[in-house]
Write a structure and sequence with these properties.
98 residues; four-stranded parallel sheet; single chain; 3 helices
Length: 98
């Protein structure tokens, strides 16, 4: 596994399944580091393990885009590890009730 922190890092929301998981696989295939964000941590950890087994660099972060401050917390965690150069949002259905 190449752990060169100069490689492009991509933050992907909605990464636990569907388009988000597909984007994560493609970004890793292209040599990018990925930070996977979604509510379902168990699924994220499974995907991150798959990506690492394929030679990629992936980390799972629990986060909910509908919760104020959740994504900011994840970005702060990532900032300590190096710059994120790309953000990909692959959200499912978002229902907000007030």
């Amino acid at each position: 596994m190449n752990t060169n922190n100069n490689r492009t890092a991509v933050l992907i929301t909605g990464a636990s399944s569907g388009i988000g998981a597909g984007l994560a696989r493609e970004f890793v295939r292209r040599g990018m580091r990925v930070a996977l964000v979604a509510r379902r941590l168990e699924q994220l950890e499974s995907l991150a393990a798959e990506l690492r087994a394929a030679g990629g660099e992936a980390r799972a972060h629990a986060g909910d885009v509908t919760v104020d401050g959740d994504i900011a917390r994840v970005v702060a965690e990532l900032a300590a590890q190096g710059a994120v150069r790309c953000l990909s949002t692959a959200l499912g259905r978002v229902e907000r009730t007030e």
